[in-house]
Design brief:
The complex is a heterodimer.
Chain A lengths: L3 H6 L16 E3 L6 H10 L4 H14 L24 E3 L11 H10 L5 H5 L7 E7 L2 E5 L2 H7 L2 E4 H7 L1 H7 L10 H9 L4 E5 L8 E7 L10 E6 L4 E9 L7 E3 L2 E6 L4 E9 L11 E11 L5 E8 L4 E4 L2 E4 L5 E10 L4 E10 L5 E11 L3 E10 L7 E11 L4 E10 L5 E10 L2 H8 L5 H17 L4 H15 L5
Parallel strand pairs in A: 3-7, 6-8, 7-9, 8-11, 9-12, 10-13, 11-13, 12-14, 13-15, 13-16, 14-17, 15-18, 16-18, 17-19, 18-20, 19-21, 20-22, 21-23
Antiparallel strand pairs in A: 1-2, 3-4, 5-6
Chain B lengths: L3 E10 L6 E10 L4 E6 L5 H9 L4 E10 L2 E2 L5 H6 L2 E4 L6 E5 H15 L7 H14 L10 E2 L5 H15 L3 E5 L7 H12 L7 E5 L5 H4 L4 E6 L2 E6 L1 H10 L2 H8 L3
Parallel strand pairs in B: 3-10, 3-11, 6-9, 9-10
Antiparallel strand pairs in B: 1-2, 1-4, 4-5, 7-8, 11-12
Chain lengths: ~475, ~260
């Protein structure tokens, strides 16, 4: 009997579009993790003593920790000694002219806009600055000059350690301490690179900042570290987008992102995540254990997290906001898709400390195939956070009858003048909705795509305009051939 | 050659132990005609038009349907729509987050693509939409609302006929469009349907009540009973049914008249 489910099942399969492996020789560390490797990484990056000390403290602490097991994800035990913790292309390049053409070709395939000249000449859309990370080393930062004019520092984390040590030392670890959790501690020991951004007082960063990531060499974990600081009255919008090639072994990704917003400052952090999700049987794929946290330190400060997660075999991340300053605002908008055998345990934590603080959580989970999607959220309103408000909306969409959606909300309100609202819904795409679309001549694929996009509209609206379209396309591609 | 030829059509609910609903429907429609189908609840009227539109919750177990020379049953629902078949639903469904404007444009373009035409440009689309909105006395704000979301029953029905007018089908199937409409809405909806009359097209109206047929005057009226068309006549048949009910038809059929 033909049902909507079986019909969806028989859609043609489609290869993970961005799966390919580059030829570039990497200068990698041997697999395994010990103090020598930590020193090796630090040495390779020419780090000052204080940075090495920080890493070693973290590494030694990591040895005392155990992996958290409370999440609703199942995977074979990770052998931390089998992973390679450092991999970099042979030469460190200074200018665009020196960039290995092979490298540029890779970025072209990924759609990274590396051509500075092209970008500066009569673009219809505002320029996007790119700090491209290829494996563990940042290559070619563009638009440095334009940003420098405004006093905005946007460079690789490694460069920031060298050239802006005071800023790094002041803020690094202040939002996510090295001892925070197993994966953050691991990251603190072996992080290789990431982005650093500092926006000075009163400056509205003139363009979207963006970074593309890629895991390439076999068994290389991606341990990037990002720190963004918006000084008083400053604002910045940052986009992180990732792709990765097809792999057989699972690859570990344990990033740490720290955001700090001072008085009247705002940071918008958007992520479009498309790491290789594993094949239909659940083999291969990236393990994404990420710690992201923003501190709204200042009064009337604001931090917004927007994410579209379609990749990774396993996703474990809870971009959170610590609402310290009075009148501060935290936002979390998320679309998480799990298909085939993907698993996601993701959500957010909104910690209200200051008075009159507000948080908004909109989580859209889409499960298809045998995917398992769990929203885990914490809304914690402390005693002193009087007159605070949270609004949470948690919607799940199930495509097919073999996937799962779970919700684990924690709500703690410790004063009587605050309010927390939680709404949740679970739905399927009904046969009647699909038939309605088909009766107008719209194909099944387009119907599903349209309905799912409608479902995610509230979240896509929050993405920087340029990437909202990409996100929609990504969703469409991710759903092809595997909904069942 | 008839425009729509249904011969001995049988269909059941597509589920284990599904009930037989259509038990040998015969109907011939020529281009340019308007036919009405009336009958009691459960007679299979709604099922008939849904089967014609290609809904897969029903399984065809016998018979043939020829539409404009083609085997209609061979085509998928979306293919039938692209060939000019349009079903105005009895219970239109909601599609949250998808604006009516976006949806309608996708529908129009799907048909155009099928006929090798380029996608409709925004100006032409807006022009057509404006025209039909005026015809159906609808508010401009309609277009930005999500499809049927928060619409009253009457608004949903009007939206169906509005979509039908924009899509300009060759075989319009109206499934109890009149249920839940007041007189004024009824007139507007009938107006919309009448605007689709043409020498190369046909309209099939499924209705309980004769009232709609005052405004959409049919060429033929059929009575459906227990999965079959048991009686056909001109528009006066509708008035007779209104006066006398359906019992007398049942008795006639039973007596083998």
């Amino acid at each position: 009997m033909p049902t909507a489910e079986t019909e969806i099942e028989t859609l043609a399969n489609r290869e993970y579009r961005w799966g390919f492996i580059s030829d570039i020789e990497a200068d990698s560390a041997p697999p395994g993790l010990n103090e020598e490797i930590v020193r090796f990484i630090s040495h390779k990056k020419n780090e000052p003593q204080w940075m090495l000390d920080w890493r070693l403290r973290a590494y030694r602490h990591w040895l005392t920790m155990t992996e958290p097991k409370w999440a609703m994800v199942h995977h074979p035990p990770i052998d931390y000694q089998k992973t390679i913790y450092y991999s970099a292309p042979k030469a460190k390049l200074k200018s665009m002219d020196e960039v290995d053409p092979e490298l540029l070709k890779v970025y072209e395939k990924l759609g990274v806009p590396m051509n500075e000249r092209e970008a500066l000449l009569g673009l219809e859309r505002p320029a996007v600055a790119v700090d491209a990370v290829f494996d563990s080393v940042s290559v070619a930062t563009t638009f440095k000059k334009t940003l420098a004019e405004k006093g905005v520092i946007f460079c690789s984390f490694g460069e920031a350690v060298q050239e802006h040590p005071a800023l790094v030392r002041k803020y690094m670890g202040s939002v996510v301490p090295y001892s925070d959790n197993f994966f953050a501690t691991l990251n603190s020991a072996v992080f290789t690179d990431g982005s650093f951004c500092y926006v000075p007082r009163g400056v509205k960063c003139p363009m979207e900042l963006s970074t593309y990531f890629r895991i390439n060499a076999r068994s290389t974990g991606q341990f990037e570290r990002t720190l963004i600081v918006a000084d008083e009255g400053a604002s910045v919008s940052y986009l992180e987008g990732c792709t990765a090639p097809m792999r057989d072994e699972n690859q570990l990704h344990a990033a740490v992102v720290e955001l700090v917003a001072l008085d009247n400052a705002s940071i918008k952090y958007s992520t479009v995540q498309n790491w290789y999700p594993g094949d239909k049987e659940g083999k291969g794929g990236i393990y994404n254990f990420v710690t992201k946290r923003g501190a709204c330190r200042g009064r009337a400060s604001k931090i917004s997290w927007t994410q579209v997660e379609t990749g990774s075999a396993i996703t474990w991340k809870y971009p959170s906001c610590i609402l310290q300053g009075d009148d501060s605002i935290g936002e979390f908008h998320s679309v998480a898709l799990t298909n085939h055998r993907q698993q996601a345990d993701t959500g957010t934590k909104m910690i209200h400390i200051g008075r009159n603080t507000r948080s908004t959580i909109v989580s859209k989970g889409i499960s298809a195939g045998h995917g398992q999607n769990c929203y885990r959220g914490l809304v914690k309103i402390l005693k002193g956070a009087s007159h605070s408000r949270n609004y949470t909306q948690c919607d799940s969409l199930l495509l097919g009858d073999r996937c799962g959606a779970h919700t684990v909300p924690y709500i703690e309100v410790r004063n009587t003048t605050s309010r927390a609202e939680h709404e949740a819904s679970t739905s399927k795409i009904g046969e009647d909705q699909l038939f309605y679309c088909k009766s107008r001549g719209i194909s099944l694929e387009d119907s599903i795509s349209m309905i799912v996009s409608g479902f995610c509209k509230e979240v896509f609206r929050e993405l920087p305009m340029e990437f909202a379209v990409e996100a929609q396309k990504l969703l469409g591609v991710s759903l092809e051939g595997s909904v069942g | 050659m008839a425009f729509l030829e249904i011969q001995n059509l049988h269909a059941r609910v597509a589920a284990p132990g599904g009930r037989d609903i259509l038990k040998g429907v015969n109907l011939t429609m020529n281009a340019g005609e308007v036919h009405a189908i009336m009958g009691k609840n459960g007679s299979g009227k709604s099922t008939l038009v849904q089967v014609l539109a290609g809904r897969e919750t029903y399984e065809v177990t016998g018979g043939t349907v020829t539409y404009d020379g083609k085997d209609l049953l061979e085509l998928s629902a979306e293919e039938r729509a692209r060939e000019g078949v349009f079903l105005a639903f009895q219970y239109p469904v909601e599609i949250p987050g998808v604006s009516t404007s976006y949806f309608l444009k996708a529908a129009v373009n799907a048909v155009r693509k099928h006929h090798g035409q380029p996608e409709i440009d925004t100006i032409s689309f807006l022009k057509r939409v404006k025209e039909k909105m005026a015809l159906l006395k609808m508010d401009q704000s309609f277009m930005n609302r999500a499809v049927n979301e928060g619409f009253s029953g009457g608004e949903k029905k009007r939206n169906e006929i509005f979509q039908m007018a924009v899509c300009d089908p060759r075989l319009a199937l109206m499934d109890e469009t009149d249920s839940g409409l007041d007189i004024d809405a009824l007139k507007v909806v009938a107006n919309g349907a009448n605007s689709l009359r043409g020498p190369d097209r046909a309209i099939l109206v499924v209705t309980h009540y004769q009232r709609l047929l005052n405004y959409i005057e049919p060429d033929f009226v059929h009575v459906m009973l227990d999965g079959r068309i048991v009686k056909s006549g001109g528009k006066t048949l509708a008035m007779e049914l209104e006066e006398r009910g359906y019992d007398w038809v049942e008795r006639e059929v039973a007596a083998g008249v």
